[in-house]
Amino acid sequence: MKEQIISVKNISKQYQQEQASGVQNISFDINKGEIIAIIGESGSGKSTLLKCIYGLLSVDEGEVTFNGERILGPNEQLIPGHKEMKMVTQDFSLNIYAKVYDNIASMMANTDVHYKHEKTMEMMLHLHIDHLKDKKITQLSGGEQQRVAIAKALVTNTSVLLLDEPFSQVDALLKNQLRADIKRIAAETGVTVIMVSHDPADGLFLADELLILKDGHLMQRGKPAEIYNHPNHIYTARMLGNAVVLNTDDAKKLGLEIKEGNAVFYPEWVELSNSWNSRRFEVKDVYYKGFYEELLLERNGVTIRAIQLNRGEHKKNDHVQANIGRFLKL
Ligand code: ADP
Ligand code: MG
Predict the structure, then answer these.
(1) Among residues 96, 111, 148, 216, which one has the fewest Cβ atoms lying within 10 Å of its Cβ?
(2) Structure confidence by residue, pLDDT tens digits, 181-231
(3) Is the CB of 51 inside a 6 Å radius of any atom of ligand 1?
(4) Closest CA to 231 of 204, 193, 254
(5) Which residues, other chains included, contact 167 with Cβ-Cβ below 8 Å and sequence gap of 6+?
(6) Looking at ligand 1, which residue's alpha carbon is closest to its atom 13?
(7) Does the beta carbon of 21 sit less than 6 angstroms from any atom of ligand 1?
(8) Residue ranges matching CATH 2.40.50.100 in the chain
(9) Which of 47, 58, 59 gets mutated to test ligand 1 (max ligand atoms within 8 A of its CB)?
(10) Which residues, 6+ apart, have CB-to-CB distance to 205 below 8 Å?
(11) Which positions fall inside the ABC transporter domain (predicted)?
(12) Pairing, β 279-288 against β 293-299
């Protein structure tokens, strides 16, 4: 039985009266122990939503509850949020002159020194930063600082961890490791994670639930695979999978049966094979992508993209047989 921990009910927050900004009428529930990823382009309202959930911003309408208790806004209490919620922002808020150990330990009272020490060591092990114990924050890389910030957030009895663009400061290699860490820590500690990112790769890999934000509106919510395979908006398909979007005329030129709107498909839905329903395309360009290649294909003046796993099979100016195996009408 899933236990609900946070409920966001019809919240709206507008910064300026005339202009559209902030978030509008957003509702969703979060279950205990889940990882929620809020994905959207820059300015779509992700940080605003996170701050409203945390109690850092006062909402214009609606409410956020934590275990049924309403989260108070900054006008209603001195320290924002709920004591079991912690937010890690891009600036990490660490004491840069103090050691890693002290940054984490300082979150706890001195009433039980033994417990404080044990808990600090435990968190450092969890985040794989125990070897950095005696280093000062200024001596750490961005990724290491981030781990300290997360350890610091989790060392007290935190049941909800909020992360704003947690992977924006780190390189690709460390990103993979941090993602895996967050997933592991959530599983090990049962902490609920709400993270915000403009890079959907973060959310797709990590999250139990994805929320897609656009212009302050919640566009879609669901399991990553569900949303990826059944996006209800071009915006989502473009953001999650770099989808190809063809208007009605262009779609018809490729023989796609569509009366209005757009035909939308991911490059990997294009089958490069010689079958009864495949059509002849010209290869306009080949982009090297590591373990695969992306082909730019043209037919009747319409350009699409396809994925080729067997690298080097088709070259620029070649002709290939391709079939758009699946497409969405959006
Ligand atoms: P995101 O985190 O998705 O990039 P934000 O939540 O920061 O987006 O911002 C959403 C919208 O609200 C943007 O249009 C932004 O310009 C506007 N906005 C954010 N903070 C403020 C503010 N303090 N004052 C006025 N407008 C703001
Ligand atoms: Mg933001």
Answers:
(1) 111
(2) 888 889 988 999 999 998 888 777 789 999 999 999 999 999 999 999 999
(3) no
(4) 204
(5) 175, 178, 179, 197, 199, 202
(6) 43
(7) yes
(8) 242-329
(9) 47
(10) 179
(11) 6-240
(12) antiparallel
Residue whose pair of structure tokens reads 């929620």 in the numeric block: 36
CATH 3.40.50.720 is the classification of domain 4-239? no
Distance 59 CA to ligand 2 centre (A): 17
- Provide the CATH topology of domain 242-329: OB fold (Dihydrolipoamide Acetyltransferase, E2P) (2.40.50)
16, 17, 42, 44: residue to mutate for ligand 1 pocket, most atoms within 8 A of CB: 44
Going by C-alpha positions, the residue among 198, 201, 199, 205 that lies closest to residue 182 is 205
Residues measured by CB to lie within 5 Å of ligand 2, the ion: 46-47
Distance from residue 164's CA to the centre of ligand 1 (Å): 13
Gyration radius of the chain's alpha carbons = 24
- 292: CB partners within 8 A, 6+ apart: 307, 308, 309, 311
Burial 13-23 (b: 16+ CB within 10 A, else e): bbeeeeeebbb
